[in-house]
Write a structure and sequence with these properties.
It is an enzyme of class 2 (transferase). InterPro entries: SAM-dependent_MTases_sf, UbiE/COQ5_MeTrFase, UbiE/COQ5_MeTrFase_CS. It holds the Pfam family Ubie_methyltran. The chain is α/β, with parallel strands linked by helices. The protein has a domain at about 100-315: Vaccinia Virus protein VP39 (Rossmann fold, 3-Layer(aba) Sandwich), CATH 3.40.50. It is built from 10 helices and 9 strands. The chain has helices spanning about 40-55, 85-100, 105-110, 115-125, 145-155, 165-180, 215-225, 245-265, 270-280, 285-295; strands spanning about 75-80, 80-85, 135-140, 160-165, 185-190, 200-210, 230-240, 300-305, 310-315. The strands form 2 sheets. It has a 7-stranded mixed sheet with strand order 5-4-3-6-7-9-8, sandwiched between helices. Strand 6 (about 200-210), helix 7 (about 215-225) and strand 7 form a beta-alpha-beta unit. It is globular.
Length: about 325
């Protein structure tokens, strides 16, 4: 194994109070500069007012961080196999993940027969993460990758677990705090803008099974390039296109029959898992995504197919 993937030797534990995250006891920040909380009270008041208004109007609408305002996406886009207004997609995706958040980890194990853990381990081994580094896990959900990165960067490093969906982020925060991860911040952020974060902030960016749900993927890749430090790397772990046609047909049969059935039985939500299967088919294939990364400025881009191309890990560098 190369030195890049070897684990650093452990260091003496630091006083937890010395490295406690400023976010651990505060509401989830949204749209504030990293490590700053001066506007959290105002944001909380605004969110409360908005939520009360929505409740009075009986509208199921979620408060989401602002997305990109670009011309990359037309007036309509896809939501699974459906065509929807581009401005509505984020809300529809939010409905899906608010619905599945509580059972998300259980369903991941069931749907992938536990193989998702091996996919994530492969991505982590490609990360080259080091002691003291700054890591951003975008659309990090329940925190599988962030938990490992928290250990690898050590007390002098910092990991930010970000997600656009508050339900998912709350599950991740509870899980990591219970695991004693005191060097992790939790930030509501839209991948299209990554507005809370300054330019050249992170040594490593990861996004695991989240990019396919982003409306404006080009804007998201540009935002990732912006916040990554020169010399840093981006890893995208995402469902992709099987490279063997007979295998692809079996995979389709499984995805559109077994997944919704498991969703109905375990999470009482077949429609969300039908969307998840459809969203995989609408995601760019391996070569297309590689080209999108290069267009955003990333260099030395490559990808590695896993499980016959069901999943691929894309890698790019900001040089």
């Amino acid at each position: 194994m190369s030195q890049e993937n070897q684990k650093p030797s452990p260091t003496a534990p630091a006083n937890p109070q010395d490295n406690a995250s400023p976010f651990l006891t505060e509401p989830l920040p949204q749209g504030t500069a990293q490590g700053q909380q001066q506007s959290l009270q105002a944001q909380t008041a605004q969110q409360s007012t908005a939520q009360n208004t929505q409740h009075a109007q009986n509208i199921a609408k979620y408060n989401l961080p602002r997305g990109a305002q670009t011309n990359n996406v037309g007036e309509t886009t896809h939501f699974g196999y459906k065509t929807v207004n581009s401005e509505e997609k984020a809300q529809k995706v939010a409905e899906v993940f608010h619905s599945v958040a509580a059972k998300y980890d259980v369903m991941n194990d069931l749907m992938s027969f536990g193989i998702h853990r091996l996919w994530k381990r492969f991505a982590i081994n490609m990360s080259g993460v080091r002691r003291g580094q700054q890591v951003l896990d975008i659309a990090g959900g329940t925190g599988d990758l962030a938990k490992v990165f928290s250990r690898e960067v050590g007390p002098q490093g910092r990991v930010v677990l970000s997600d656009i969906n508050e339900s998912m982020l709350n599950v991740g925060r509870d899980r990591l705090l219970n695991a004693g991860c005191s060097n992790v911040d939790f930030v509501l952020a839209n991948a299209e803008t990554l507005e809370p974060f300054a330019d050249n902030s992170f040594d490593l960016l990861t996004i695991s099974f989240g990019l396919r749900n982003v409306t404006d993927k080009d804007a998201a890749l540009e935002a990732m390039y912006r916040v990554l430090k020169p010399g840093g790397r981006l890893l995208i772990l995402e469902f992709s296109k099987p490279i063997f046609e007979p295998f692809a047909k079996l995979y389709d049969l499984y995805s559109f029959t077994a997944l919704p059935l498991m969703g109905k039985i375990v999470a009482n939500d077949a429609e969300s898992y039908k969307y998840l299967a459809e969203s995989i088919r609408m995601h760019p294939d391996q070569n297309t995504l590689k080209g999108m990364m290069e267009s955003a400025g990333f260099q030395n881009c490559d990808y590695h197919n896993l499980t016959g191309g069901i999943v691929a890990v894309h890698r790019g560098f900001k040089l």
